[in-house]
Specification:
Helix content: 40-55%
Strand order of the largest sheet: 2-9-8-7-6-3-4-5
Bound molecules: 4'-deoxy-4'-aminopyridoxal-5'-phosphate
Structural class: alpha/beta
Amino acid sequence: MLPALRDRYAELQARGLRLDLTRGKPSAEQLDLAEPMLSLPGVGVHTDADGVDVRNYGGLDGLPQLRRIFAELLDVPVEQLLALGNASLTLMHDAVAYAFLWGVPGSERPWGREEKVRFVCPVPGYDRHFAVCEAFGIEMVTVPMTPDGPDVEAVAALVADDPTVKGLWVVPTYANPDGAVVSEAVARRLVSMPAAAPDFRIFWDNAYAIHHLTENETKTANAIDLAAEAGNPDRVLMFASTSKVSFAGAGVAFFASSPANVAWYKKHLSVQSIGPDKVNQLRHALFFGTADGVREHMRKHRQILAPKFAAVTRILAERLGDLGVASWTDPQGGYFVSLDVEPGTAARVVQLAKEAGIALTPAGATFPYGQDPEDRNIRLAPSMPPLAEVEVAMDGVATCVLLAAAEKAAHATTP
Ligand code: PMP
C-alpha cells in the first residue's frame, strides 16, 4: 500500500501543479456578477431615495435605502441595523475594542480592567475570530461544534459558572468551516441560558446568512428577537456584510442588535467617524434594488459555487469513501468544507500537498492559537479556483490524505 501511494504521490509532484485552496475568496467569475456596480451610481446620480446627498458628510447609521433591503434579509428592524464600512471583521474588532475600553451596557467596569476575560470558541472555527481574541489577550475556551451549532450544554455550563466568560463566537448559518446551521432550539438556549457575567455577549457573525448552495434557503434563527423574548435583550451582537455578495474588498458591513447596544455602538463610532461611505452604499442599493434582487443575485453565485462543492465531496467520496481514514462535511451553504483526517496527520497532509504544489489552509488554523490538539482538521476552500482546478487539487489532496495515513500506520507497526 505505502509504495503504491508513494508512486502515486511522486506522479502528483511531477505534474508541477500550482493550485490554491487556502482562503474563502470569491472567484473572478463571481466578482464579475457585480461588475455593473462599477458604473454606479454614475455621474449626476448622488441623492438617495430620501433625498440625501450621498457625497456629503453625515448619516452615521448608513443609508436608509440600503438598510431597508438588508433589514428584510437579516430579519431585523431597520432602526436596529447600521450599514457601515466595507468589513464586518472591523465591526467585530471594534465592538471588542469598545468593550475593553468602556464596557458594554450592563458592564460593571471596562473589560480591559477585568483581571481576566474569556471567550467561548466553538471549534473548528474561524481563525480571524481567534486572532481578535489573541490581540486583546482574551483567553479562549473551546467547545465542540455539532451539526446544530456549538455544543450548547458545554457552552451553558461555562457561561453559567464563570463570570470571566464575557463572550461567545457563533457563525449561525453555514459556519466557517463546518457548514453547521444553528437550530432554533440551540438559538433559544443560547439566548436564554443564565450567565454569570452580567455583560455576557454573543458575537453572532451572520457572514453566510444568504449564501445558500441548494434550493433550500435556510432561514437563520432570529437571535435578536429570541433574546428579547427571553429577557436578555442585549445579549446578541449581530454582524454581516456583502463581502461575498458584491465585492469582497468593497462591500458594505452591517451591525444589528438591541436598541441599547445600537446606541452604545453609535456613541463610540461617532467619535471615530462622521459617517460611512454612502456613495458605495447607494451603489449597492441601486444595483440590488430590493431584497429579492439580492436573493436573485445570490442564486447566480450558487450556480458558480455549487458545482465546485459537489466536486469536492464527490472526489473525497470516490477516493476515500470506504477507507475509514477521513470524514468531511457536505455543506448546504457558505464557503468551506471541513475535512477531518487521521488524528496526528493533518499537518503532514498539508505539507505533502504543499510539496505537490497544492496550497491548503495551514493545519490548526481552525483552532485557537493555530493548535489543533488532535492534528486532525483541515479547512478546504474551493470557491476561488476554476472547477477543473478544484477537481485536480482535490484528487491530489485525497492522495496526500491516504499517503499520510499509510505513513502513520507504517510508523505504528515499525518495531
Ligand atoms: N466572518 C466569517 C465567519 C467569515 O468566514 C468571514 C470571511 N472569511 C468574515 C467574517 C469576514 O467578513 P468581512 O469581509 O465582512 O470582514
